[in-house]
Design brief:
By secondary structure, the chain is an alpha/beta fold. The chain has one domain (about 5-200): 2-enoyl-CoA Hydratase, Chain A, domain 1 (Alpha-Beta Complex), CATH 3.90.226. About 50% of the residues lie in helices and about 15% in strands. It has helices spanning about 30-40, 75-95, 110-120, 145-155, 155-165, 170-175, 190-200, 205-240, 240-250, and strands at about 5-10, 15-20, 50-55, 100-110, 120-130, 180-185. Helix 3 links the parallel strand 4 and strand 5 (about 120-130). The longest helix is centred in the last third of the chain and has 34 residues, at about 205-240. InterPro entries: ClpP/crotonase-like_dom_sf, Enoyl-CoA_hydra/iso.
């Protein structure tokens, strides 16, 4: 049913694994599948929680957005707008879903992967890896509401420095500033995530879901409301000669192991 996702139902919660080789790069199809999958799971009255994890053998949660969706010469305004809508609608949906959501972050988690994890209610990370919003390193601005979401989690002082420098937090540093909630050995990651969500879904769901709405619905609505304007503004940036040049330079360097996607 899904090309890039695997769903495992385990009583009151489900595990969704992202399985898009080689690095779970997030394109139009993957964002769309994530949204569709979330709607499907919400229809199951027995499921109250969700663990979002990587199904890759490599230590990568997701390397972020597929640069083919951002490189103006490789796409079109129409395609990019569809991509931006799919991405934004899922992120809004993730923030407002009544399900309890836990991100099981294995290894690398930059940019699009990071904002997906931040949209979850709880984040558990392996002892090795990194997480952050690093768009500025390839000359792009961090989306406005992505900035807001990070700022809400770790505070203005930490967020400002991290966002303006493209800082990648190591797991212990991410834990120290509140970007993640736990750091565990990789072999314990999924079991820990399942234990958290299994305990959480035992709490009466109405109170949890309504409180979550108070906390996150405003941001979800802002994501929806700003989507079309942001898509237009972002395309103008991506299609400018300066950014095209920076993207070309960045793409040429992607063969280096240290490079990460947006």
């Amino acid at each position: 049913m899904y090309r890039y996702l695997q769903i495992e139902r385990k009583g009151a919660y489900a595990i969704v694994r992202i399985c898009k080789e080689p690095v779970n790069s997030m394109n139009l199809d993957l964002w769309s599948e994530l949204d569709k999958c979330l709607y499907e799971i919400e229809q199951d009255v027995d499921i109250k929680g969700l663990v979002l994890a990587s199904g890759l053998k490599r230590s990568i949660f997701t390397a972020g957005n597929d640069l083919k969706e951002l490189y103006a010469k490789a796409t079109s305004k129409t395609r990019f707008t569809d991509f931006w809508r799919a991405q934004t609608h899922f992120l809004a949906h993730l923030n407002r879903t009544s399900l309890v959501t836990v991100a099981a972050i294995k290894g690398a988690c930059p940019a699009g992967g990071c904002i997906t994890a931040l949209g979850c209610d709880y984040r558990i990370m392996t002892e090795k890896g990194y997480i952050g919003l690093n768009e500025v390193l390839i000359g792009l601005p961090v989306p406005k509401l992505w900035c807001k979401q990070m700022e809400r989690l770790i505070g203005a002082r930490h967020a400002q420095t991290a966002l303006m420098t493209g800082k990648m937090f190591k797991p212990k540093d991410a834990l120290a500033v509140g970007l993640v909630n736990q750091v565990v050995p990789e072999e314990n990651l999924l079991a820990t995530a399942e234990a958290v969500v299994a305990k959480w879904v035992q709490i009466p769901s109405f109170g949890v879901a309504t409180t979550k709405k108070f906390l996150k619905e405003e941001l979800a609505q802002e994501l929806d409301d700003f989507c079309e304007e942001e898509a237009t503004e972002t395309w103008q940036i991506l299609s400018s000669p300066k950014i095209i040049g920076l993207m070309e330079k960045y793409l040429k360097g992607l063969s280096k192991p240290s490079k990460a996607k947006m």
